[in-house]
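Intended use. Records like the one below are meant for learning the mapping from a protein sequence to its folded structure. Do not use them to infer anything beyond what is encoded.
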Amino acid sequence: MNLEEYLTQNLVKKVNPDFLQINMQLKRSRKDIAAAEKLAKSDKTWAYTICYHSMLRNARALMYANGYLPTNRNTHKTIVQYVSSQVGREYSDIISKLARMRRERHDFIYESKNGISSLQVITAIKYAKTLAEVIEKAVNNINPQRRITE
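Structure written out for the chain above:
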């Protein structure tokens, strides 16, 4: 789906980017990754869910930096689809994983399913870190005066 279709279907709205807010989201994403790493052995499902939220937060920040935000309709799905259209094909594995994580997170949150393996958590942390780097770089390219800080 292209951006015009998102707008027409009221899945996104045009906004003025607030780079202070975007920076806060990206910094929070890094904290989320660190928290997931600490929880990885004791609570795999929650660590995995935190990774998902970190990736979603990054994707939303990129959307915001480009002057759009999701509406209240299919928010998570829209963000995942949007970031898929914005990052290069070399990150298709990460975006596919993010889409799967969205569904698995839903099962965990709403149906209390717990079945995440250690390998899934390790992969989620790795992908969350990679996506954070890619999106931070993209945001810096959009607004080079505001570098992402730790």
